[in-house]
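Structure (tokenized):
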């Protein structure tokens, strides 16, 4: 009875990482955002509530470069930092 395993028969299909999974940024695509966020944390005694804009920018970069799964920013706790949709009055005053 032979139970040879053929590992070459299946192909690996990559998929975006799950929420909370942060693969390494090998190409440094978001390094500037990370450094800005880390500097903000250091300057504010690691009080992350004072660095929410930098955190949002960093997570947006990671999502844009497929270093984490796309999530609506509202679900990541940034609803209060989102630009409000233009009101009807704003649209009426523009040519």
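Design, position by position:
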């Amino acid at each position: 009875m032979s139970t040879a395993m053929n590992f070459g028969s299946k192909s690996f299909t990559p998929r975006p990482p799950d929420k909370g999974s942060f693969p390494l940024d090998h190409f440094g695509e978001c390094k500037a955002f990370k450094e800005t966020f880390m500097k903000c944390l250091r300057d504010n005694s690691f009080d992350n509530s004072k660095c929410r804009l930098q955190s949002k920018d960093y997570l947006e970069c990671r999502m844009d470069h497929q270093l984490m799964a796309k999530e609506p920013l509202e679900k990541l706790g940034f609803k209060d930092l989102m630009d409000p949709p233009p009101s009807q009055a704003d649209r009426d005053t523009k040519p």
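Reviewer-requested clarification: The longest helix spans residues 31-43. The radius of gyration is 21 Å.
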